[in-house]
Amino acid sequence: MAVAGSAAVLAAPRARAQTLLDEKDPQAAALGYVADAKRVDTKKYPKFAAGQHCGNCALFQGKATDKAGGCPLFGAKQVAGAGWCSAWAKKAG
Ligand code: SF4
Protein backbone atom coordinates (compact mmCIF):
# COMPACT_ATOMS: atom_id res chain seq x y z
CA MET A 1 0.00 0.00 0.00
CA ALA A 2 2.66 2.50 1.03
CA VAL A 3 4.80 1.67 -2.02
CA ALA A 4 1.90 2.06 -4.43
CA GLY A 5 1.03 5.33 -2.73
CA SER A 6 4.47 6.86 -3.24
CA ALA A 7 4.59 5.69 -6.87
CA ALA A 8 1.36 7.54 -7.50
CA VAL A 9 2.77 10.67 -5.92
CA LEU A 10 5.91 10.45 -8.07
CA ALA A 11 3.90 9.94 -11.24
CA ALA A 12 1.50 12.79 -10.54
CA PRO A 13 3.60 15.74 -11.77
CA ARG A 14 4.05 14.11 -15.17
CA ALA A 15 0.46 13.03 -15.59
CA ARG A 16 -0.83 16.43 -14.63
CA ALA A 17 -0.98 19.15 -17.26
CA GLN A 18 1.61 21.77 -16.43
CA THR A 19 -0.75 24.68 -16.76
CA LEU A 20 0.70 28.02 -15.83
CA LEU A 21 -1.39 30.12 -13.52
CA ASP A 22 -3.06 33.04 -15.27
CA GLU A 23 -2.83 36.41 -13.51
CA LYS A 24 -6.53 36.86 -14.28
CA ASP A 25 -7.47 33.70 -12.44
CA PRO A 26 -9.77 34.91 -9.61
CA GLN A 27 -7.60 33.31 -6.92
CA ALA A 28 -4.46 34.80 -8.49
CA ALA A 29 -6.05 38.25 -8.73
CA ALA A 30 -7.21 38.02 -5.11
CA LEU A 31 -3.62 37.44 -3.98
CA GLY A 32 -2.12 40.01 -6.35
CA TYR A 33 -0.20 37.35 -8.28
CA VAL A 34 1.95 38.54 -11.18
CA ALA A 35 4.07 36.28 -13.37
CA ASP A 36 6.94 38.76 -13.13
CA ALA A 37 7.79 40.24 -9.73
CA LYS A 38 8.96 43.40 -11.52
CA ARG A 39 5.31 44.18 -12.17
CA VAL A 40 4.10 44.01 -8.57
CA ASP A 41 1.75 46.87 -7.76
CA THR A 42 3.82 48.30 -4.91
CA LYS A 43 1.13 50.83 -4.01
CA LYS A 44 -1.29 48.01 -3.38
CA TYR A 45 1.34 45.73 -1.87
CA PRO A 46 3.79 47.98 0.01
CA LYS A 47 5.22 44.98 1.86
CA PHE A 48 6.78 43.76 -1.38
CA ALA A 49 10.56 44.07 -1.29
CA ALA A 50 12.84 43.78 -4.29
CA GLY A 51 14.29 40.32 -4.53
CA GLN A 52 11.14 38.51 -3.45
CA HIS A 53 9.81 36.08 -6.04
CA CYS A 54 8.18 32.66 -6.17
CA GLY A 55 11.54 30.96 -6.63
CA ASN A 56 12.61 32.02 -3.15
CA CYS A 57 9.21 31.72 -1.47
CA ALA A 58 8.71 29.12 1.25
CA LEU A 59 5.65 27.78 -0.56
CA PHE A 60 7.30 27.25 -3.96
CA GLN A 61 7.48 23.55 -4.81
CA GLY A 62 10.15 23.73 -7.48
CA LYS A 63 13.86 24.44 -7.24
CA ALA A 64 14.83 28.09 -6.79
CA THR A 65 16.08 28.19 -10.39
CA ASP A 66 13.01 26.51 -11.96
CA LYS A 67 11.10 28.62 -14.50
CA ALA A 68 7.85 27.41 -12.97
CA GLY A 69 6.73 25.25 -10.13
CA GLY A 70 3.78 24.32 -8.01
CA CYS A 71 2.35 26.46 -5.27
CA PRO A 72 -0.12 24.95 -2.79
CA LEU A 73 -2.23 28.10 -2.96
CA PHE A 74 -3.05 27.51 -6.60
CA GLY A 75 -3.72 23.79 -6.75
CA ALA A 76 -2.60 22.06 -9.92
CA LYS A 77 -1.51 25.25 -11.68
CA GLN A 78 2.12 26.27 -11.75
CA VAL A 79 3.42 29.67 -10.83
CA ALA A 80 6.34 31.37 -12.53
CA GLY A 81 9.64 31.22 -10.67
CA ALA A 82 9.96 34.94 -11.35
CA GLY A 83 6.41 35.60 -10.17
CA TRP A 84 5.12 36.93 -6.87
CA CYS A 85 1.94 37.09 -4.82
CA SER A 86 1.01 38.76 -1.55
CA ALA A 87 1.31 35.44 0.32
CA TRP A 88 5.05 35.38 -0.31
CA ALA A 89 6.86 34.01 2.73
CA LYS A 90 10.56 33.89 3.45
CA LYS A 91 12.08 30.49 3.05
CA ALA A 92 13.55 29.19 6.29
CA GLY A 93 17.33 28.96 6.20
S1 SF4 B 1 2.78 31.85 -2.27
FE1 SF4 B 1 4.89 32.09 -2.90
S2 SF4 B 1 5.20 30.56 -4.51
FE2 SF4 B 1 3.01 30.82 -4.24
S3 SF4 B 1 2.45 32.35 -5.78
FE3 SF4 B 1 2.78 33.42 -3.85
S4 SF4 B 1 4.93 34.08 -3.93
FE4 SF4 B 1 4.64 32.51 -5.50
UniProtKB/TrEMBL annotation:
Q: Where is the High potential iron-sulfur proteins family profile domain?
A: 15-93
Q: Which UniProt keywords apply?
A: 4Fe-4S, Electron transport, Iron, Iron-sulfur, Metal-binding, Transport
* PROSITE patterns in alphabetical order: HIPIP
The record's listing under Gene3D superfamilies reads: High potential iron-sulphur protein
Question: Which InterPro entries does the UniProt entry name for this protein?
Answer: High_potential_FeS_prot, HIPIP_sf
Instruction: Please describe the quaternary structure of this protein.
Output: Homodimer.
Q: What does this protein do?
A: Specific class of high-redox-potential 4Fe-4S ferredoxins. Functions in anaerobic electron transport in most purple and in some other photosynthetic bacteria and in at least one genus (Paracoccus) of halophilic, denitrifying bacteria.
Q: Which family does it belong to?
A: Belongs to the high-potential iron-sulfur protein (HiPIP) family.
Protein name stated in the entry: High-potential iron-sulfur protein
Look up and give the organism this protein is from.
Aquincola tertiaricarbonis
